[in-house]
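Cross-check.
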Amino acid sequence: MAYDLQLSHVGKVYDNGTAAVIDFNLDVDKGEFIAFLGPSGCGKTTTLRMIAGFEAISSGDINIRGKRINDLLPEQRPTSMIFQNYALFPHMSVRKNVAFGLDVKGMPAAERDRKVDRILEKLDLLAIADVRPDRLSGGQRQRIALARSLVVEPDILLLDEPLGALDANLRKSIQNELKLLQRSLGITFVFVTHAQSEALALSDRIVVMNQGKIEQISPPYELYTRPKSLFVAQFIGRNTLIPGTVHGVSGAIATVDTAFGPLSGLAPSTTGAVGAKSSLVLPAESIDVLPALTPRADVEAAYGNCVIPVAISRLQQIGHIVQMVVNLPNGDQINIEGHADKYGGRFAAGDKAQIAWKATGATVIIH
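Predicted model, tokenized:
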């Protein structure tokens, strides 16, 4: 069975020689929700536009369900695209906006109207079907854009930061609706965003891009907890990076020589890592704060060698969350937060303490 979407060695080089996308490879199964995530200028929107046909590719192949589409015009491709500004026609009613793509295809009026009514009902837009979109809210306009894209029954729906113009509360609400809609329709979604929380909440897999290249493709939890490159470790989540050199590898655990002594985390997949420059990546969620006087034997029994003495420079409790800033021995600072049930009343600003983690909760990355 062919993939719903397959990009093989796809590249984009502009006329001035600037490489926007470099050797992009991705296989997408039917019904997957894929997010392209990365900083501005990393190539994510260019890649989306190449899939849609709005940008010509310079190298490689794009296939949808086994059919090469490199040379097809946008309107000939089994894709539909939603832009950040929705690109609705302000002089047309909601119904006419949604019907526009079917009219372009020359669909008979009776069949067109049945399809339009069905998608308007599914997205709860029937009550405003005869209203112009410029009189509606951002959330309603977003639903109209979705309806217009989905009514043509694309194999792939492409979304270019479609929630970027919404306020935070509405954005969260539409995120939930979008995920439920995608699941119910079973259509493959490819979604461009610069918002980590959005990508982590919505997607089945995330493609992290940097300077035109793919840094990592992983499910959200794996991406968050097991970064595979220094860029991903710095870009995703709230990680503390401790530089060092790999001292040794025992099974799944690597020991890194650092300024704070030997510390451990999950070993990199790279063979021959011993002696390599590396970073120990500590997700904020993996770090525990312990009183300075906790017996060393107890600390070692629970955490092995994964412990560093610190000083708490700031501490505040906001509702049920305790937020701390701790100073490492070299003066670097780490932000830590935890539930009041765990830390409330146990520490104060100025206290000496220890941070500790289980080796399996950290990751060693080779530079």
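The chain has a mean pLDDT of 91. Residues 2 and 278 are 39 Å apart (CA to CA). Passed to J.P. for a second look.
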